[in-house]
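<discrete_fold_record>
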Amino acid sequence: QVRLVESGGGLVEPGGSLRLSCAASGSIFSIYDMGWYRQAPGKQRELVARVNKGGTTNYADSVKGRFTISTNNAKNMGYLQMSSLKPEDTAVYYCNGVPPLANYWGQGTQVTVSS
């Protein structure tokens, strides 16, 4: 079974940047589209960015122009470059396929945007 491990989160001030990484134990992203999801306290998990096998990306309106998703399939890695961060970006961030694979959710990585 493929495992997904997210890293790179932390505490950052508004306007700052972070780069999240997603390490997959198998070649999941050469089979499925890859997505980054987030879940803020009291809210449902939402898809914020996705990339298909052809490299086409899509973003939620709330992050468009600020976040960039990418993958390195040779290394089974995915990334989310986040800039101009806002307090409302505070959430636990997860990577998974799109649509998400139920048994593959990792622990996520906490991103907190606060001064």
The two ends are 40 Å apart (CA to CA). The chain has no helices and ten strands. The beta strands are 4-7, 10-12, 18-24, 33-39, 46-51, 57-59, 67-72, 77-82, 91-98, 109-113. The mean pLDDT is 95.
